[in-house]
Amino acid sequence: MQSTIKHTAKATHSGQQTDIWFDDSERNGLYKTIFNRRDVRGQFKPGPVPDEVLSRVLYAAHHAPSVGFMQPWNFLVVADQQKKQQVHDLFTTAHNEAAEMFPEEKRDTYRSLKLEGILESPLNICITCDRDSAGPTVIGRTHIKTMDQYSSVCAVQNLWLAARAEGLGVGWVSILDQRKLQDLLNIPRKIIPIAYLCIGYVDHFYDKPELETAGWLPRQPLEQLVHFDSWQNTRSAEEDSLIEQINRDRDFPEQF
Ligand SMILES: Cc1cc2nc3c(=O)[nH]c(=O)nc-3n(C[C@H](O)[C@H](O)[C@H](O)COP(=O)(O)O)c2cc1C
Question: Which of 120, 172, 198, 207 most suits a substitution to test ligand 1, by most atoms within 8 Å of the C-beta?
Fold first, then answer.
């Protein structure tokens, strides 16, 4: 129904979005989605994701921005339990290798963290980047070659937020050997697997990032991440009204 309304508005306004505004509740809906999105690993319910829901979420991903509008993504949907088991095996190998890379005092904590929900989630989706999807020279990718991969990451984030708004959990699994994943999913070498995502309905979403709750890392104070005119030039609330405002808004995310 929504799309019919939008098409009517567009048709009567020569392609301009003059009728598209967000009232307070719609705007708050977006913030609510952003501040309540979580990486989900352990709370997946086995029930299926209806095609009509998945289709909407994939459309959200497909409408992400992309450098030169190259849309370098593909969405490889993995529902076969045997295939998921094989990806899980890849994860287990990489996870064991990863544990050895941390300082000894952190290894036990690392091993105790649940970092994937490959088998528990009903669906996995691998979002890829086809670097050749728009020819060799792409508007905007002429000087920073990785811009195409960043575009696929934008699709991931769109999918992640749309999924949260649909009540679906998403977990990103990056502890995988990329080449072995390509082989397993028959992805050609030139196509980059950007994100391997676990998707499904969940028992619950956590309030905070699990890594924060586990004491792995805290959320950084926003005011220390804002620099002015030059790298590392931070300002105090007394020196700058934006920092003062950021400090005043410290509880903004909690309102949602
Ligand atoms: C590029 C990227 C890769 C990630 N890889 C993993 C992963 O392999 N396993 C995992 O459990 N979480 C992974 N995450 C999720 C992060 O740990 C999570 O986003 C972060 O701890 C903040 O928590 P939140 O997403 O619940 O807010 C990844 C997130 C991003 C953006």
Answer: 172
pLDDT in tens, 213-223: 999 999 999 99
**Superfamily of segment(s) 37-212:** NADH Oxidase (3.40.109.10)
Q: Are the C-beta atoms of residues 191 and 129 closer than 8 Å to each other?
A: yes
User: What integer is the mean pLDDT of 163-185?
Assistant: 98
The answer to whether the Cα torsion of 49, 55, 131, 147 is positive or negative is negative
Name residue 39's beta-bridge partners. 170
Q: What residues contact 100, with CB distance under 8 A and at least 6 apart?
A: 107
Measure 39 CA to ligand 1 centroid, in angstroms: 6
Residue for token pair 């679906």: 168
The domains of the chain are located at 37-212, 220-256
Cα(137) to centroid(ligand 1), Å = 32
Nearest to 128 by CA among 176, 79, 181, 194: 194
